[in-house]
Backbone:
DNA sequence: ATCAATTGTTGTCGTCAACAACAATCTTTC
DNA sequence: GAAAGATTGTTGTTGACGACAACAATTGAT
């Protein structure tokens, strides 16, 4: 990390010239100028992971923005949705189902419980586990969240196209 | 956070009996037993963001695993790919192109420079910026990375189907 | 009764996105 | 050409997140 520390900007006055290889074509610009979108990605295009990362970023940002008024993030929404559809689940069950680490779920449930959306009820059959339930307030809140989430989903449809969205859901159905 | 602290498990000894409601249907399980995949997701299915999140997780894990031998992560790979295809770019240009914060790119380039894959050359036209280049070692390394990345991409194709993968890339092309 | 496994919890570590602030350096404008 | 404003790289902080490790309480199996 101490490799080049404080940016010794002036140090290397190396007249070593640089003259960007003119043969390389695709490059050029250097100082923004105008279009900075003409930067070749080369192999990056054609990489599913890259496209998915960018898309995931966009979609989460839109979700957060659309649900900003109620201050609910995607993970919180997914938790409430699962509990709402399957009341009484244990934390392990929820964690496993959503692919969340149970250690992380603890804090997530803490915040949801603080806001009186979720309830940890001691399980009757297993004194180790908690049965998770939505509170009355949580249920009505979730209903509103779902409306906003539906609006977000419309944004997605507008962005990539209605049928493309459905095709996407179909392709990735195996991961839900 | 202090809401329910140390799990007062025993406290509620409420002999209130409970005998889990047999009517609840859909839930039930509690202790793993056998199939724990029968938990309804309700509205979660049909949410692009959720599917994309799970997929992105899978795909990144596979990328990391496939390139574990060379210790290259997706972001590092994308940086080297872009620099390789457009030598001389500034950090701002790379950051903007890849959707990485320029603050974050600093550390990423530090590590790549430490490993002698990338070079920060003082720009000839703008003494504020650095012209980014792959080192000789970086170029040969990138060639190998690309072979491994191609292998990873084959894993993706195996997972979701060859044509589904291409359709996915096509749908998300606007985000690259 | 004993030992292994499970559940919720706490804590730590490393990655990552989002900001804010700063010095050095352009660029613009008068 | 000097002052004001914008850019570039950098440092630092915050918070969400995934991955692990350890632990007490409890359950299940031997």
Residues:
């Amino acid at each position: 990390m101490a490799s080049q520390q404080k940016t010794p900007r002036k140090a290397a006055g190396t007249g070593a010239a640089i003259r960007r290889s003119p043969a390389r074509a695709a490059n050029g610009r250097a100082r923004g100028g105008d279009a900075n979108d003409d930067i070749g990605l080369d192999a990056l295009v054609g990489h599913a992971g890259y496209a998915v990362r960018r898309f995931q970023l966009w979609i989460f940002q839109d979700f957060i923005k659309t649900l900003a008024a109620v201050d609910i993030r995607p993970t919180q929404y997914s938790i409430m949705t699962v509990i709402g559809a399957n009341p009484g689940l244990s934390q392990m069950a929820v964690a496993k189902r959503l692919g969340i680490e149970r250690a992380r779920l603890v804090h997530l449930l803490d915040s949801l419980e603080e806001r009186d959306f979720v309830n940890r009820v001691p399980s009757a059959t297993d004194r180790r586990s908690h049965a998770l339930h939505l509170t009355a307030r949580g249920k009505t809140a979730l209903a509103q969240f779902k409306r906003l989430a539906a609006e977000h989903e419309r944004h997605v449809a507008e962005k990539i196209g209605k049928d493309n969205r459905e095709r996407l859901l179909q392709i990735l159905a195996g991961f839900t």
